[in-house]
Amino acid sequence: MVRSKRLKPIKKLAQNNEKAAAKALGESLDNHKQELQKLNQLEQYRIEYLTEMEEKVKAGVSGAALQHYHQFLNKLNLAITQQKDVIQKSTEQVDINQDQWKSKHSRTKAISQVMTKIKDKEVKQKEKKESAQIDEMSTQAFIRRQNSNGLG
């Protein structure tokens, strides 16, 4: 079996690994986008909640209700902080997956380049061999003609 054909399974494996890495990267990007949307929703809700709280304070609200608003606002701020931590981890995962995809992609590309060089070399060797065979047949035909002309 020629060398280029022996490398086909290796190339296929590299391509499969690259596809898996691309899929993982896509999934982590989707997840990151969702986490950013959650943060945006929490921050938007916080703004709406603060606006509502300000209106109620202006209208006159009891101390207990104001305390309730502050407690809920603290919980909302904590949720925002936690969501920012989730986003940080999500960003790190995207970076990891992106690095892994780049690595797999580079490997696939390198294997493809090696296979191309090997195939080119095999083609040149085949052409050289065929040329040598044609030269040999031509030489033998010439010798046969010389021998038949010399004898006749």
Question: What oligomeric arrangement do these chains adopt?
Answer: single chain
Radius of gyration: 36 Å
Bin the strand percentage. Answer: under 5%
Helical fraction: over 70%
Distance between the termini: 48 Å
CATH architecture: Orthogonal Bundle
The CATH class turns out to be Mainly Alpha
Structural class: mainly alpha
Family: Belongs to the FliJ family.
Protein name: Flagellar FliJ protein
Main location: membrane
Pfam family, one: FliJ
Q: What order do the helices and strands come in, and which of them pair?
A:
Elements: H1 3-6, H2 8-59, H3 63-151
Helix pairs in contact: 2-3
GO molecular function, one term: cytoskeletal motor activity
InterPro entries: Flag_assembly_chemotaxis_eff, Flag_FliJ_proteobac, Flagell_FliJ, FliJ
Biased composition (Polar residues): 136-152
What does this structure look like?
- It comes from Aliikangiella coralliicola.
- This protein has 152 residues and is mainly alpha-helical.
- The protein has a single domain, classed as Helix Hairpins, CATH 1.10.287.
- The protein contains three helices and no strands.
- It has helices at 3-6, 8-59, 63-151.
- Helix 2 (8-59) packs antiparallel against helix 3 (63-151).
- The longest helix is centred in the C-terminal third of the chain and has 89 residues, at 63-151.
- The protein is rod-shaped.
- The protein starts with a helix and ends with a helix.
- The model has no long low-confidence stretch (mean pLDDT 92).
